[in-house]
């Protein structure tokens, strides 16, 4: 599932805000899930969100005017793909709007 989150921050500021928001994100994963995050390159973020004994890989690419993402929902959680995608998109939007 692909998501796009527009912003007008520029790449560096968008990355800074996402980095600052990551520690808070784990606290909001339903069911006491966990998250790991790595930056394989300057503007690419790879996360794994674990919840309900399932792992959800998320890849984000921070661009000049948007954050482009791919969320891979496991078959077991397909029925929840809408809420999961909404959670990730809403979380990223919150990170981008807070200074």
UniProtKB/TrEMBL annotation:
Pfam families: PHA_gran_rgn. It comes from the Bacteria. This is Polyhydroxyalkanoic acid system protein. It comes from Sphingobium scionense.
